């Protein structure tokens, strides 16, 4: 059976807010529901036209947040919805899964993306009979990502270790972070993302975290988070954030049936594995495999989005891929916007599409590295 071509019709996201910030009153399913309803309305669809919904979520209450979100949106009970937790790669994994569902003929119209509320992340602790239990007042933020005998590093410690291993300079990490904020602020000024950000109220209309006051002097004053002096600081590591984002994906049959105009083709994606201790290099393995699968080289790719959890990660991936930094995160990245884990995959796809459209370019790649040693990547061709 031949695989069907899958089209990206459009996508929307909420403004991105800090933990306890502008989205502090929204549960994750409320953020997702707002995007779901806005997305079908934008494209003249009824909720019942959607065959499936796939969402990424990491720090929610558990269960099937995608299903809760569909019900919160007031959609028909008959629409199935599925939640993926692949940590930081959750949203992009949900999008690649939805692509495969359509390509294989199981559905024609699917919404995929993710939602996260770090503000409402539950407090979690191990049971008293678990060897990892400390006491009843000790909760954990970081789930186990890999067995201890393999290595289960704290994300900050892993970032610092990689920066030291690759002999990175603090000035270069800070400069990348500052550049991310400047590009994000330029995108705001030029209203590049206005068409994909839905207001949630009269006051919640744009991203909260890009900082106009940031400069190298201020970044240079920040202390190392792991060691002093250290390379990884609060200035060159992303913040925890709240937000939701989703894409509308369609088969050619759905385009014809609903009179939809596609903006891009979404090709089969890739997820690969690497050493959990060096999980930030996941995008390197995923991008190389993605390009090989589609008989392309980086020279064919006009723009790349790599989720910017740490400046360390971007510099390492650019170096190992021999990727020009000018191609990467041209509207700014998570160092400026923040990283609402489950939503980030859809956010970077939306930013990638806007980048390709603004420059009139053809191919773009989006990639995320995830704790536990995963890398996920997707290929977009602008129509």
List the keywords.
383 residues; alpha/beta; Peroxisomal Thiolase, Chain A, domain 1; 10-stranded mixed sheet; 11 helices; 10 strands; 32% helix; 18% strand
Instruction: State the helix count.
Output: 11
Which consecutive residue ranges, at least 5 long each, have pLDDT under 50?
none
Q: Distance between the terminal alpha carbons, to the nearest Å?
A: 25 Å
Whole-number mean pLDDT: 96
Task: Supply the CATH superfamily name of the domain at 7-123 and 239-258.
Answer: Thiolase/Chalcone synthase
Tally the beta strands.
10
Write down the Rg: 20 Å
**Oligomeric nature of the chains:** single chain
| Element string (H = helix, E = strand) | EEHEHEHEHHHEHEHEHHHEE
Helical proportion? 25-40%
- What overall form do the CA principal axes indicate? globular
The assigned CATH architecture of the domain at 7-123 and 239-258 is 3-Layer(aba) Sandwich
Structural class by SSE content: alpha/beta
The first-level CATH class of the domain at 7-123 and 239-258 is given as: Alpha Beta
Strand content: 15-25%
């Amino acid at each position: 059976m031949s695989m069907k071509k899958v089209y990206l019709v459009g996508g929307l996201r909420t403004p991105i807010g800090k933990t306890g910030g502008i989205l502090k009153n929204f549960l994750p399913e409320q953020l997702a529901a707002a995007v779901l309803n806005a997305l079908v309305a934008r494209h003249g669809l009824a909720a019942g036209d959607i065959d499936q919904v796939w969402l990424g979520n990491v720090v929610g209450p558990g269960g099937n947040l995608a299903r809760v979100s569909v019900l919160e949106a007031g959609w028909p009970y008959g629409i199935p919805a599925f939640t993926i937790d692949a940590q930081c790669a959750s949203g992009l994994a949900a999008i690649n899964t939805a692509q495969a569902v359509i390509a294989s003929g199981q559905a024609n119209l699917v919404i995929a993306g993710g939602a996260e509320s770090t503000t409402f992340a539950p407090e979690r602790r191990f049971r008293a009979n678990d060897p990892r239990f400390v006491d009843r007042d000790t909760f954990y933020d970081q789930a186990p990502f890999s067995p201890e005998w393999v290595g289960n590093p704290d994300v900050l410690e892993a970032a610092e270790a990689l920066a030291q291993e690759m002999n990175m300079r603090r000035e270069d990490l800070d400069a990348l972070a500052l550049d991310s904020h400047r590009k994000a602020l330029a995108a705001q000024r030029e209203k590049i993302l206005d068409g994909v950000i839905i207001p949630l109220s009269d006051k919640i209309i744009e991203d909260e975290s890009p900082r106009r006051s940031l400069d190298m002097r201020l970044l240079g004053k920040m202390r190392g988070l792991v060691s002093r002096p250290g390379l990884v600081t609060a200035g060159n590591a992303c913040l925890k954030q709240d937000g939701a984002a989703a894409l509308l994906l369609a088969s050619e049959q759905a385009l014809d049936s609903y009179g939809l105009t596609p903006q891009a083709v979404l090709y089969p994606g890739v997820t690969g594995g690497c050493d959990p201790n060096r999980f930030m290099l996941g995008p390197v393995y995923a991008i190389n495999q993605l390009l090989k699968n589609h008989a392309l080289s980086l020279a064919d790719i006009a723009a790349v989005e790599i989720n910017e959890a740490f400046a360390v990660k971007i510099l390492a991936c650019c170096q190992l891929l021999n990727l020009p930094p000018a191609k990467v995160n041209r509207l700014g990245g998570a160092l400026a916007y923040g990283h609402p884990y489950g939503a980030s995959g859809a956010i970077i796809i939306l930013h990638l599409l806007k980048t390709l459209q603004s420059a009139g370019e053809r191919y773009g790649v989006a990639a995320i590295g995830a704790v536990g040693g995963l890398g996920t990547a997707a290929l977009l061709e602008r129509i």
